[in-house]
Every structure is written in C-alpha cells, then in structure tokens.
Amino acid sequence: MAAKSGITETNLTKGQLRKLNALRKSVGPAIGERAFVKWLKKANSEKNTEGDRNADLIAEAVQRVLRDRRLRIPRGGYLVRRVRGWVLVERTAAK
User: How far apart are CA 68 and CA 50, in angstroms?
Assistant: First the structure.
C-alpha cells in the first residue's frame, strides 16, 4: 500500500514497518509518515560502510598466520567464540 507520502510498505523491513506504525499511532498518520520519511532518509545516509572492526582484526590475524604457513584450514565450517579471555576456534559438527 502506497501512501500520499510515497511510502511503499512492501519494500520496508519488519523493523521499519514497526517504526512507521508507531509514528502513525503516536502523532497521527500524516505527521507520522512525514517523520518516517525524514528518518528513513537520514538512516540510509548514515549507514556504516566501514564494516566490522572486530571481524577485520580477526581476518588480519588469520591471514598473517596463513602467510607464515603455521595454519592449515581444511574445508568445512568453523565456530569462533570467546572463552575466558581466549579466542576458541572449533570445527563445526558434521551433519
């Protein structure tokens, strides 16, 4: 359903729909839709394009060890998690 403000609800995520409906209920449909459009434009322009710093650090550390040939990664999935201050890498269970 497209409103007068040009919002196509089918293109919105579940969270965006919730925000839109909350704004409509709290300040009314017309003002809520205008506020939502402004918020959506601002949210889209502020998206973080840098990426995850922790993932970058982990990838850098793994690449360094792979380059030195101190690590071999066979095929299959792995689970990386923190355990008591350590980083634990486990092979996932085969299904």
Answer: 28
Whether 9 contacts 1, CB under 8 Å: yes
Structure tokens at 87: 């980083």
Please indicate, yes or no, whether the overall pTM of this predicted structure exceeds 0.90: no
pLDDT tens for the chain, residues 1 to 95: 544 667 888 889 999 999 999 999 999 999 999 999 999 988 888 776 667 888 888 888 888 888 888 877 777 778 878 888 787 778 887 65
| Cα distances (angstroms) measured from residue 22 to each of 28, 35, 36 | 9, 11, 10
Structural domain boundaries in the chain: 9-45, 53-91
